[in-house]
């Protein structure tokens, strides 16, 4: 077992021991998920063959708590760590580490956490239905490869704002839908079905006048939910560079067993002296549940990119033939309330000038993928505790 895995295991055991005496003063919950599957990838062309992998799919263990401070005010905390059951790797607090206050005004949190855009992921985002796909599919959902810190030749480099995402690594990639460090997040109370949230991640170092900002408004009543989100990365990729996302998502439970959802997104990246890079995309998803059985079907479209991308700084492809599509068909069988077997078929159809890969496995510029139809077949088991 690796040093990181030993450190994580030791930290988890220590926290479980410490949680017992705290429980009498505040409500502390230990929770988690183990989700492992086998995935076969094919369609990469002559000489590339197929590959079968055993993958971890967002397995985690977490601790969250709430302490009543009186007069309707409460202190809250959350420490959630991701780990890989297939390899034993993991890091403490890698998914969230936050502390805050909650009351009639709503809630405020400080720390490392997801932004409000991720809330829309639960309405219609890739991976929501079936446990296999990575979030932020490259170019299909909020572009998982924006702001990868490249120099004018496209080589990995650094900027003064590498700390915005809580990671100083030069290759850190800024998805709009992501976890951000050095953050403050506010969620309003729900009033007549309406709510709002805003999140700010600070550059926190001298020479960085940058920030990552995400805000949403949402309406939910009975069987319907609608949310609008705007994200801005200001000066994160470099001076005078503003990267923006606007997304609208909606879902409706037609019956207690049938759910329909969809989203539309518009992306824009500054490119001084050249044309701004733009792309629109959308997705549609449906879920039918009958007893222990759940069947899911989704379609996600990455539109044709417009503008210039020199050097490559995102996962969007431009020009004729750059539009691409993904179809997902999934099935889940509930063995109990906490354990399920799942399977999924995913078909990616690249345009003649697009090189997207399944699961966000590569940024723009991938070799040998233009026009390829890539397929993934997966099956696994998930247990929540």
UniProtKB/TrEMBL annotation:
<dbReference type="InterPro" id="IPR033900">
    <property type="entry name" value="Gram_neg_porin_domain"/>
</dbReference>
<dbReference type="GO" id="GO:0015288">
    <property type="term" value="F:porin activity"/>
</dbReference>
<keyword id="KW-0813">Transport</keyword>
<keyword id="KW-0998">Cell outer membrane</keyword>
<keyword id="KW-0732">Signal</keyword>
<keyword id="KW-0812">Transmembrane</keyword>
<dbReference type="GO" id="GO:0046930">
    <property type="term" value="C:pore complex"/>
</dbReference>
<dbReference type="GO" id="GO:0034220">
    <property type="term" value="P:monoatomic ion transmembrane transport"/>
</dbReference>
<keyword id="KW-0472">Membrane</keyword>
<dbReference type="GO" id="GO:0009279">
    <property type="term" value="C:cell outer membrane"/>
</dbReference>
<dbReference type="Pfam" id="PF13609">
    <property type="entry name" value="Porin_4"/>
</dbReference>
<protein>
    <submittedName>
        <fullName>Porin</fullName>
    </submittedName>
</protein>
<keyword id="KW-0406">Ion transport</keyword>
<feature type="domain" description="Porin">
    <location>
        <begin position="13"/>
        <end position="350"/>
    </location>
</feature>
<keyword id="KW-1134">Transmembrane beta strand</keyword>
<dbReference type="InterPro" id="IPR002299">
    <property type="entry name" value="Porin_Neis"/>
</dbReference>
<keyword id="KW-0626">Porin</keyword>
<dbReference type="InterPro" id="IPR001702">
    <property type="entry name" value="Porin_Gram-ve"/>
</dbReference>
<comment type="subunit">
    <text>Homotrimer.</text>
</comment>
<dbReference type="InterPro" id="IPR050298">
    <property type="entry name" value="Gram-neg_bact_OMP"/>
</dbReference>
<dbReference type="InterPro" id="IPR023614">
    <property type="entry name" value="Porin_dom_sf"/>
</dbReference>
<feature type="signal peptide">
    <location>
        <begin position="1"/>
        <end position="24"/>
    </location>
</feature>
């Amino acid at each position: 077992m690796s040093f990181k895995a030993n450190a994580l295991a030791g930290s988890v055991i220590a926290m479980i021991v410490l949680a017992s005496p705290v429980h009498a003063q505040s409500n502390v919950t230990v929770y988690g998920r183990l989700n492992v599957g086998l995935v076969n990838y094919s369609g990469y062309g002559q000489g590339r063959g197929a590959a079968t992998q055993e993958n971890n799919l967002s397995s985690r263990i977490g601790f969250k708590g709430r302490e009543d401070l009186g007069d309707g005010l409460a202190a809250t905390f959350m420490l959630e760590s991701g780990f890989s059951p297939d390899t034993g790797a993991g890091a403490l607090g890698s998914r969230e580490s936050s502390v805050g206050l909650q009351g009639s005004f709503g809630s405020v949190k400080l720390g490392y956490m997801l932004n409000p855009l991720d809330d829309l992921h639960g309405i219609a985002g890739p991976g929501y239905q079936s446990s296999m796909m990575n979030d932020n599919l490259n170019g299909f959902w909020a572009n998982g490869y924006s702001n990868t810190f490249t120099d004018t030749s496209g080589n990995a480099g650094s900027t003064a704002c590498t700390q915005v995402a809580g990671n100083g690594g030069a290759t850190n990639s800024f998805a709009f839908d992501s976890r951000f460090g050095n953050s403050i997040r506010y969620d309003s109370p729900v009033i007549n079905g309406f709510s709002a949230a805003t999140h700010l991640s600070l550059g926190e170092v001298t020479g960085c006048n940058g920030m990552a900002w995400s805000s949403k408004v949402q309406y939910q009543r009975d069987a319907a939910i609608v949310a609008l989100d705007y994200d801005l990365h200001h000066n994160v990729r470099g001076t005078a560079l503003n990267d923006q996302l606007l997304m609208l998502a909606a879902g409706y439970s037609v019956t207690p067993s049938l759910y329909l959802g969809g989203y539309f997104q518009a992306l824009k990246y500054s490119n001084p002296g050249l044309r701004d890079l733009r792309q629109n995309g959308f997705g549609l998803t449906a879920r039918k549940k009958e007893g222990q059985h759940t069947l899911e079907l989704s379609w996600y479209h990455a539109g044709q990119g417009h503008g210039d991308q020199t050097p490559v700084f995102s996962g969007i492809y431009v020009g004729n033939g750059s539009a691409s599509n993904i179809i997902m068909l999934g099935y889940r069988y509930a063995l109990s309330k906490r354990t399920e077997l799942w399977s999924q078929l995913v078909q990616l159809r690249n345009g003649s000038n697009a090189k997207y890969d399944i699961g966000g496995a590569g940024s723009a510029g991938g070799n040998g993928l233009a026009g390829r139809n890539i397929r993934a077949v997966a099956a696994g088991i998930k247990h929540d505790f």
